[in-house]
TrEMBL record:
This is Uncharacterized protein. The keyword Signal applies. Residues 1-21 form the signal peptide. The lineage of its organism: Eukaryota, Metazoa, Ecdysozoa, Arthropoda, Hexapoda. It comes from Aquatica leii. Keywords: Signal. It holds the Pfam family DM9.
Length: 197
């Protein structure tokens, strides 16, 4: 696990220092400097209907998903309570956002996604971290999905809201579908994209 952490930190620091974006499977993390890039991935919306984006933050020995509000230079994330930072922050971007799909799931079903490419959200010791979202108090908010080696270790979706950490057993998880085409439908009170065969 230490090796995974060192590797995650090395990749984060390399991308942060030497390149604006490392493209992997049609999505990538850019350095977030307070300006929303034109290709930033929208995860949901706030109470005013403005977009909420997917961030990633280096926090101690963890690389955690976060939320970034429109017109805000900070990233907010859940770690016991709501935390925020404006340093060591990335923002998820894609030239083809229609290939990023939100799929409904439950915490004890995440390990059954064997034919789906789940988007990694970072690193946390003893867990695999993915990106999820849920609707809470008028907002559709992204956060971290904590999974372990067994279904009993899948702890659900952690989001932050109004100074608190909230945990969901049912949520949507972000996947990458290379053959997806754009079709809109309603999920979490926000238009989403589906795969069409």
């Amino acid at each position: 696990m230490y090796i995974k952490f060192v590797l995650a930190c090395a990749i984060f620091l390399y991308v942060h220092r030497f390149s604006d974006a490392l493209i992997i499977n049609g999505y990538y993390w850019r350095v977030f400097d307070g300006e929303i890039p034109h290709d930033a991935v929208i995860a949901g919306s706030d109470v005013n209907g403005l977009p909420v984006y997917i961030g990633q933050i280096l926090y101690g020995d963890k690389l955690l998903p976060a939320k970034i509000y429109y017109n805000d230079n900070k990233a907010y994330f859940a770690w016991g309570t709501e935390q925020s930072s404006d340093s060591n922050v990335k923002i998820l971007c894609s030239p083809t956002p229609e290939k990023l799909q939100w799929v409904k799931t439950k915490k004890n079903e995440v390990h059954m996604f064997i034919n789906k490419h789940l988007i990694s959200g970072g690193y946390e010791p003893s867990y695999t971290i993915y990106i999820g979202r849920s609707f809470y108090k008028g907002e559709t908010l992204p956060g971290r999905v904590r999974t372990g080696e067994r279904a009993s270790q899948n702890l659900g979706l952690y989001i932050s809201s109004i100074g608190k950490e909230i945990i969901f057993d049912s949520f949507e998880i972000l996947t990458y579908e290379p053959d997806a085409v754009e079709v809109t439908t309603e999920h979490c009170h926000k238009a989403a994209l589906l795969m069409h065969n």
